[in-house]
Amino acid sequence: MKTASVAEIKxxxxxxVRASAESPVIVTRNGKPVAVLxxxxxxxxxxxxxxxxxxxxxxxxxxxxxxIDKGRGIPHEQFWSEIxxxxxxxxxxxxx
Length: 96
What we know:
Blueprint (H helix, E strand, L loop, with lengths): L1 E4 H6 L1 H7 L5 E5 L2 E6 L5 H10 L2 H15 L6 H20 L1
């Protein structure tokens, strides 16, 4: 794993983007980590990364968990059926 300052990243961005394909690059400011450059393998991984750090998405998950805890959720099978339906529609839309 490489570590580079913001100034180094600015001066050599292309090289550090290429390096991020091998392993994460830690970006530092005044010697402290402030960011990470990573290279997602595909669009699905990129989506998971973005959602994993989305405060809005985490808020939705928290509210959903509270509903489930109160017995107002949907069955597991129904959830995955609906998710797979959305995914299939997205794939069809992309192929058009």
